Amino acid sequence: MAALIFGYQPGHTVVHRIDARIKLAALALFSIVSLQAGFPGLGLALVAALLLLPAARCPPLLCLRSLRWYLVLLLCIVAARAATTAGEPLLASPWLPASRQGLEAGLVLAGRLLVIALLGLLVTVTTRPSHIRAAVEWYLRPLPFIPHQQIATMIGLLVRFIPVILTQSAELHDALRARAIDQRRNPLRRITYLGMPLLRRTFVTADRLAQAMEARCYGMERTRHQWRTGACDWTALGLVTGFCALLLAIS
Amino acid sequence: MDIIKISGLTHRYPDGRTSLEEIDLSVARGSFVVLAGANGAGKSTLLKHLNGLLRPQEGSVEIAGVPVHQDLRHARRTVGMVFQDADSQIVGETVYDDAAFGPENLHWPAARIRESVDSALETVGLGKLRDRSPHLLSGGEKRRLAIAGVLAMASEVIVLDEPFANLDYDGVRQVLAHIVALHAGGRTIIVCVHDLEKVLAHAQRLIILQRGRIAADGPPEQVVRAAEACGIRLPAAIRMGGMVESWLR
Fold first, then answer.
1. How far apart are CA A76 and CA A36, in angstroms?
2. GO molecular-function annotation terms (chain B) (predicted)?
3. Main-chain phi, psi angles of B100, to 5 degrees
4. Closest CA to B88 of A172, A170, A192, A215
5. For residue B47, what are the domain limits?
6. Is residue B12 in a domain?
7. Is A104 helix (H, G, I), strand (E, B) or coil?
8. Structural domains in chain B (count)
9. How many helices (H) and strands (E) does chain B have?
10. A84 contact partners, CB below 8 Å, separation of at least 6
11. Which residues pair with residue B49 across a beta bridge?
12. Structural contact between residues B20 and B212, judged by C-beta atoms closer than 8 angstroms
């Protein structure tokens, strides 16, 4: 169930109603500003993210549980930074070479990545994938030599087919376990036995998908998304810009 | 009036093997046709010609009087295809987005797309699941979503390749009920199967393919006896001297 939090959750909150282009712009702006933010700014941003999540009917604890492996990765980053940055030693033991400066740098980096991940999660949970796709297409449209519609379609297909490929992988894994793959000691052999059929199956699926898309008249010209930007959207953008300015000021 | 007219259609694989040989076939508007054949008989290859996914190497295919190669868009809009593997034909990230994929490709205005998709989803009973990820649907729901995808394009002919494959009893009944309702609503239905039991009771015409040729064609009660010789199991009720009963009863 926890994995489901990564997908779109239908709702009627204010965050759900904001234009996807504004949400993507706000996320990008915030990500850039957070690169400059220190402890006070990140603390404020973390509080803001944890307040916004319930406002979008998205329980913060469930979000953090969904990101548990990401949190483990962040802990590794903190540990690595603490162990490899020169500075005032934190512990007397020569076997644990952690520095205070390294720990601070690691915490700042992990804090930035955590806040960005939480806000990214907020965007994906509150925005229909088709709107994210249409927003990406809208941003790419002015760029010359970029096939914006094809890129947008590819993003949509990626979102659609990641769970399909994961399911196929789980099925293949079960089939291999049923035939005692666990008895094989060589991990390379095990990966090959899983990887080759999965790759073959993925290509077959891609081929069938291409035919199905062709059968439904897929082409270059498609109906474009109808954007409706109102006062609520501009207010949201204004608030995010103001908040980012505040972060820069206190950092 | 015939909505599909095929004359002298021949198709060969790149290695030279023949998959369809001199097929002559007409399908009347509003009819319910079952196309049966053993694996490798050429059923799927024939269906792909109706939608322009394959072009005739010899002969011609006309949809509503227009040769497929002349107007692919017309053929694909008129003939909606529901493939055997529902998972690999659903392209949308949500149920609504998938049903809207075809109409968006046809460049319809947004209001018309909304109306058409809402109506298609209601028709197949998926109106309440419009925001759900297709990955989370059951096998029968996925098949119904694939049908909604072609209904949303207002296709006159609906071609279904093995629509009951991998479905449980309830799933078969749900899909069959929708197919029968679509036919009652005036659409032309072509169902491709290798097991006649589930659908024959509703068919008006049975075409049996064998090694790329039409082995038998006519009303099911007259043609079905030829099935066994073409590698298709005769329905149990007919073996016992009775008539095939609908699975919807």
1. 22
2. ATP binding; ATP hydrolysis activity; ATPase-coupled transmembrane transporter activity
3. -85, -10
4. A215
5. 31-55+71-239
6. no
7. helix
8. 1
9. 8, 10
10. A102
11. none
12. yes
What is the pLDDT, as a whole number, of residue A1? 39
Rounded to whole angstroms, the Cα distance separating A250 from A239 reads 17
Distance CA A228, CA A212 (A): 31
User: Could you give phi then psi for residue B192, rounded to 5 degrees?
Assistant: -105, 120
Rounded Cα–Cα distance for residues A195 and A187 (Å) = 12
| Unique residue bearing structure tokens 């021949």 | B10
The token pair that represents A246 in the structure block: 């505040």
How far apart (Å, rounded) are the C-alpha atoms in residues B188 and B3?
Answer: 8
Give the pLDDT band (50/70/90) at residue B144. very high
CA A85 – CA A97 distance, rounded (Å): 9
In a domain, B247, yes or no: no
Give whole-number Cα distances, B241 to B207, B222, B245, in Å: 21, 14, 12
> Which of A153, A167, A203, A216 has the highest number of chain B CBs within 10 A, making it the mutation to test binding with B?
A216
B180 in a structural domain: yes
Evaluate whether residue B25 is within a structural domain. Answer: no
Report domain extents, chain A: 2-127+228-250, 148-215
Task: Identify residues of A whose CB sits under 8 angstroms from chain B CBs.
Answer: 7-8, 10, 128-130, 133, 156-157, 159-160, 163-164, 167, 204-205, 208-209, 211-219, 221-223, 225-226
Q: Which pair of tokens denotes residue A122?
A: 């907020």
Residue of B229, B227, B210, B207 whose CA lies nearest to B218 = B207
Using a CB-CB distance cutoff of 8 angstroms, which residues of chain A are in contact with residue B134? 160
Tokens of A79: 């540990």
Q: What is the pLDDT of residues A39-68, one digit of tens each?
A: 889 999 999 999 999 988 888 888 888 888
Q: Single out the residue of B189, B83, B184 nearest to residue B142, CA to CA.
A: B83
- Residue closest to A135 by CA, chosen among A162, A155, A120: A155
Angle between the N-to-C axes of helices A20-34 and A100-126, in degrees from 0 to 180, rounded to the nearest 10 = 180
pTM score of the predicted model? 0.80
CB contact set of A10 (below 8 Å; sequence gap of 6+): A16, B131
